[in-house]
Every structure is written in C-alpha cells, then in structure tokens.
Specification:
The chain is an alpha+beta fold. The chain is built from 15 helices and 19 strands.
Length: 594
Amino acid sequence: MRRADVKHVSPIILLMTLLTPTVFSSDSIITVTPESGSEIIDESHFQAVWSSPFSDDSPPFNVESDIPVSLLRYNVKETVAGNNAVIMDNEVIVYVKTNCPDIFDGVSVSATTEKNGGVTGIKISSDVDVPAELLPNSNFGAVWNFTFPWCDEGHYPSKGKAIRGFSPRQRSKDPTDEEDSEDVPSENCKVTAEILYDACFRKFETISPILKVSDAFFVDIVSSRTEKLECTNRYEANLMITEQFIESSNTTILTKKYGRRECMRIAPGRPYFNSDGKQLQSYAFATPDSQSCWSKPIAARNDEQQPILELKDKALSQKPNLSSEWTERSLGEHASIASFAVFTISLMTNNAPPDLIRDALHAALDEVDHATTSFEIASILAGEAIEPGPLPQSSHEFANDIGTLMESTFKEGCIDETLSALAAAAEADNYSSCDDDSEANGHCGLEGELKTRLTKIALDEARHSALAWRTIVWACGVDAASCGDNIDPYLQDAGPGKQLSEAPERAFPLLHADFKSEWKTIYKTLLPFVIAGGQSDDIDSMCSEYVSASRLDDIVGSDGLSLVKVVSDRIIYEVLCGSFAKQYRKDTLSPLSE
C-alpha cells in the first residue's frame, strides 16, 4: 500500500494591514496527490522574508538542490485583499516526492539563511546520486472557509453569503489510497521537489540538476454555505498546473515574479492599493432588503431616474451571468472611492494645483454614484439585495515624492482607468437604446437601461482618465528627471511600451477588439504631450481634430458615432485643449517655482 495523500492546515490571510496580517480563518486544507506509483516523503513550510509585489528590488529566494526541482508559481486573481486560499504571500511550501521511497529516504530540506525573522533560502540535500529527470506534476486541490470579518453570527440570518459569481462545476473525485504500489527498477527511480509559492511576491534563484517552472491557478471553484455558521462560506477548488519551461543544467536560473498585470485583479474604475502595493477590495454579500443601503433603487435616492425593479424576471431569464458581472463592477467602483481619496491626499502632499485637487474630489463623488448604481443593478439581476462589506484595513504613506505619485498615477489612472472607460463604452455600444414604446410606458427595457447607466459611467470615467493624464502633464513640468525615469520608457517599442500596447488584451480579453485602436490613439497622442510638460508647437491643429469633444452630450449615440470614439475624443480633448492645459501652457513657471 502506498502512503496516504498529504493534507496540511495552512493559515490564510483575509484582510491585510501594513505590518501584520489579520487572520480570520485558519482551516484551509491543501490536498496533494502524486502520480500513480509515487508518494510524498517530505513536506516543509518556510516563512520567507517579506517581499513587496510589482517590484524587483527585493533579493530572490535562493534554492540549492541536489534533486530536480519543479517550481509552481501560484496566483489567484479571483481573490483580493490577501484572501489567498492556499498559501500566504510569504510562505514557501516544499513537497519532496519519489517513486522509490526506500532509495531516497535520505533527502532532507533545510533553511540556509535567515534575515529579519524570515528565511531567504533553502538547501535540498540527497545522500545518494540523483538522475536529472523530473516526475510529473502532482494534482493539487484546496478546501477552505471564508468568514466575513464584519459579520457576527446571526446578524445576517440565512442571508450572510458571499456573492462571487463562481459557476459551480462537478469537482473531481477525491483520490483513494487503495492502489498497491509496484516495485520500480532502480534505473527508473526518480525524485522531485515541488515548491509551491505566491509568484506575485517572490522571485527565485535556483540551482539544481533540472528545473521545471509551471503556473498554478484555480479551476472548478465551488462555494456553499456552511450549515452551522451563518457568516461562513465553504469553498472547494482544484489547481490547474500549466508547464511553462524546463531548464536542464546545474547553473543558477532566475525565475522572475509575476508582474503587475498578472497579479492585479481587473476591476472597473481606479484600483485601490495599500502602501505595500497590495490591491484591496471589499466583498459582496446578500442581505435582507430591509438592511440594504448601497443597493437601494436609484429612484429612492433621485426622483429623476426610474427604478428597474420591474425588469428583474426578464433580466434573470435572459441574462443569467449579468448579476455576477455587475457585482464585480460594483466592488470595483466601491474601491475606487477610496482610491481617489488617497490620490487627493497624494496630490496635496506634493503641492499640486487646486484644479487637480478639486477634480479628484469630484471624481470620488462620481465613484459613489457608480457604486450605488452598480449595486442596485446587481441586486435586481440577482433577485436579492447585494451589499458591500467594509474595505480591508490598510495603511498609506504620503511622502513629498513626485516620482512615486507620477508612477502610480500613470499606471492606475492613465492606463487602468482609461481602459475602464473604454471598456464601459464598448459594453454600452453593444446594447440597444430605449425605443419609443418603452419610453411611452414609463420605463426602458433591460438593454436600454444598462446602456444608459453604462454611458454615464463611461463619460465620467473619461473625465477621470483625463485627470490622470493632466496630472502627468503637471508633474512632468515640475520634475523632468522623474518624468524621464517613469514615463519616457513607455515611448519605446519594447519593455513598458510593449506592455502599453498589449494592455487591452490583458485587462479585457473579451472586449479589447472593440476599443484597442482608440486606446492606441490615446496613448500615442498624449504620451509625447505629457512628457513635454504640456508644451507643443502644433497644439492648435491637434485640438481642432478633437473639437467635437466639446459638445459630446449632444452627439452621444447619434450620427452613428460610437461611444468608444466619443470617450476617446473626450479624453484627448480635455488633456490637450481643456482649461488646465491652456492655463499651464501660458505659464512658463511650474506651480512649485512661483
């Protein structure tokens, strides 16, 4: 009989603070099933030194191994705010497996160096010669509970459940231990160390007889309510492992961490990050209508707009996936409120002009409207009130550092929010407008209502995008050196410039074809302008190309003009020809030098 599959209990982080994780659940279980004929002979857990995401400044985690190594780069974009269902972001788990346990029973795993309370490297030793051959990857599964940190048992009776939009599928059967192992000829004996880690936080330097690198991500996620705990949801999932490359040499090989695009959860609006670069976002839950707040019908807040409650049955029958889509949109818009609050303080810390600060505050209020609108629609489509929980705890550092402000504004505003505006416009373009009959009856059909709401969101997000580009204009005029370091690389065809051109496919794989050309027009037009600090000899002719953007409210949806084109024109017009740009061009002095 072969040994039983290994199961271990690993704490998961549900909410993160700057200094220490706040753990609300510690009952996650990883199941590891080697291929037939092999077994786990060693399992080791290491707490590595803290490493920030999205940065290559931190040193790599070192692995020196006498046996073949398989790196499993784990990342789950379905989770935000540290809800990492398998491992913590500073945890490294090593599984040693073999098809000849009697021969390789002398393999050992140990930490080599420690620093600041964490491990910086490990050594995997073997007392016998090991062939440079890898065993196939094991099968991994996970089971974990998520308990709402803001929920007391009984506070949301029978309704305190997570709304994540997962589509339940049949989970694969659990492996059994009933297979008899067969003797393996000594020349076929192999041993492999599988190392599971969060690739958003760590890069590796590995020296081993052979190295395989694979990506690991969740599939077949199933969620269910626990019967005894009102505030807890149970999740089950399998890890899909996809091989990326194999290196067969004993030289040191660097495996980089995932980049920002791979690790960031794509959300509408402006993403919200803490000081460590971790993306934060609330969770949505279903609650009785009497306890609803964010999801109250718009008519209850604004008599000028019609509710769409009467569309619930039609929506559920015709658009079964819209509820989860609008829930995700709601959470993104909800987090954007906090993002603009942080942005406003950052502007003031760096002595930005009042036009930017005023527009940043207005943008935060726009996001409140976007969030309430989205939660209302999500609730109607779901047939029950969908509400956000509180944002995770976070800490922020506000330094007089215009280079850092420039970098974050370009990524979160000029890229992410511009793409969000274009995506919302593209989605609106795909819906039909209200017809005369529906208007005569006092309400629009589902598609007409969604088109109206998305049009408003897209035009607001266009102003937010323009605000980000205008901020870069000002910042580049104040600090040309930081502008060269942070923005100039995007002009190149390789590196950041290539990432810029590929951003739509990465962020919106299903919609990018509808707005990729307009995205290219935006950054190709605005990048040289903002890097020059708002200076251009050809500004009059450039503005004339986008003069129609000054009367957007009259032309949206008319004359066959797509909303995507309207949004693109508005962003460019407001940056090139808006009052801020004109005022700044007339003044050769920067706001900081007056």
